[in-house]
Amino acid sequence: MIRFEHVTKRYGDGTTAVDDLSFEVAEGELVTLVGPSGCGKTTTMKMVNRLIEPTSGRILVDGEDIAEADPVTLRRRIGYVIQQVGLFPHKTVLENTSTVPHLLGWQRKKGRERAAELLDLVGLDPSVYGNRYPDQLSGGQRQRVGVARALAADPPVLLMDEPFGAVDPVVRERLQTEFLRLQSQVRKTVLFVTHDIEEAVRLGDRIAVYGSGRIEQFDTPATVLGAPATPYVADFVGADRGLKRLSVTPIEPGDLEQPPVVHLDDPLSKAAAKLTAEGARWAVVLDDAERLHGWIPAEAADGDRGTVRDHARRMEAWLPVGAPLKQAFSTMLQHDAGWIAVLDEDRFLGVLTPARLHEALRRSIDADAGGIARGDVQLQTVADV
Q: Which pLDDT value is given to residue 303?
């Protein structure tokens, strides 16, 4: 959808902001451009809608050389979101959101209907917020309106320049979550500029790590964190890149342990026998529909009367398969749990322990480094040495 071909931007004083840049962004892909201030990432993005003109090279959007397009027409079909939002203070939220459709000649009713639809999509009830003015909104709410306005004319391309940088960390995380949900629905082609590697990792399908006017590495978040291409990239992503990688490494069925399983209506004697036979200190408890109910410790099952139901404990520490390892680690800490249950919808798959979490991370890193599947990685442990 977006292609840079040997693009350079050099200013009159001799400063080279972008030097011989070539890369492609696929349709529906979200690419984060990350790097320190002055590295050229914002210049790269602004050349896509011709707010900055390249010195040499070509930029194509959907196969069209943008140098041959009318700049105003081009900008009206590319969504643009900036850090300070830039809402018109004298217009209501609904009017702000319908600005581009109005400029494109849409009928007033159609434009307002589209604006209301987008406000609802970004989590702002148009009946509540539509007639408010920007100064009556919080920073996070104004940012949501900015995103809705950028999407109002249904552009194929969305440019976002540090859009969540002006809000506090809690609101920022919520906006990131909301934007990921929104992107899963609208699937726009997005260039997202940020200086925050954690934001880049969380949001991007791929990351372009900028040095001085050049891309040092352009790859998936997992590969950038697990196999930095240069010492510069390794230094930029940080010594804690292993921890950052937890957020982009999903739980897979092969990562799980299979503990003893008992059912709510099993006699305690049956549960005790199973625990003894397997040498286990606890068992997972399922209901009659094979859904997770909780767990039972060995000492609670050591009785002559009653059923598992009488002594089972609820299990709140669980996640769906495919959830990131970072979320698994956080859930363990939140519930002070030595393991978490992993489900496929309602079906119990197994449990993830801290040791298995560590192994999953190591397998993911080794798999990327060796270009093989995670399940094919053979780990060496202390016991093997």
A: 66
